[in-house]
Amino acid sequence: MNYTEVCIEITPFSEETADLVVAHLSEMAFESFLTEGNLLKCYIRENEYSPEAVISLISEFKKADCVIKSSAKIIEHQNWNALWESNFTPIIVDDRCIIKASFHKDLPDAKYTIIIDPKMAFGTGHHQTTRLVIETLLEMDVKNKRVLDMGCGTGILAILGAKMGAATPLVAIDIDDIAVESAIENSIRNGLDGKINAIEGNAKLIMKSSFDIILANINRNIILSDIETYSNGLNSGGYLVLSGFYEDDSQLIISEANKFGLNPVFSRSLDSWAVIKMVKK
Predict the structure, then answer these.
(1) Who has the most CB within 10 Å: 215, 224, 254, 265?
(2) 145 and 221 share one domain
(3) 27 pLDDT band (50/70/90 cuts)?
(4) Would you say the C-alpha torsion 142, 205, 249, 53 has a positive or negative sign?
(5) Hey, is 140 helix, strand or coil?
(6) What is the pTM of this model?
(7) Are 24 and 63 in contact (CB under 8 A)?
(8) Rounded CA gap, 272 and 281, in Å?
(9) What distance in Å separates the CA atoms of residue 173 and residue 182, rounded to the nearest whole number?
(10) Tens digit of each residue's pLDDT (9 = 90 or more) over 140-158
């Protein structure tokens, strides 16, 4: 699957302005954002990209002391790996989890080492929301628990859950066939062949099973749309860990979750991105 890279030039550039633009673009299904110089680069599946929608959302952004311009291009599948390899550095989370590529050598030991080669799927641990969910998962008791990684991408969260002793096969779901393929390959790469069941599909698949822990690092709109399904798929006393949205959206998500018997246990943020851990009554 090809992706569209939307480059938004911000002059003069500031992280604060970039965050505000990202917040405006959250209405669309962008999956990843990165900054490079005075550019904000945004990635969305080619079939979900609408130039009219981007122009409309950016036009709503009013900031008198800067100029914002946008352009877009298609990122071919075969080009993504080279781009990723040239930019990917190892990640250490809480000195307990190292996320690295297969070509990284001579790294310190950690309790959990995860090897990720993402192909076109997003999720290397660099984004704040992935780090927030990893931190939250590291604090949880997942031993023999049934865990679902919803919107699994590369499978990084499912792999960590399996390494922490979750019941297997752990379930990972994504609507992107390349993400599912990537999750399967990464599970094998981490010695977890047969311990992660990666499935192509959406939240409707949850209705066929029940879980003790559901991890959903997606985006605000999908979470709001699917949170009832998440709740229905959780056992009583089970935990739902949500991320992929800004701290300013937390109360909106909590209010919606309350309607379906989900109560917040804690939340935290990193660079304005948030994670919320909830428990089902």
Answers:
(1) 215
(2) yes
(3) confident
(4) positive
(5) coil
(6) 0.76
(7) no
(8) 29
(9) 12
(10) 999 999 999 999 988 999 9
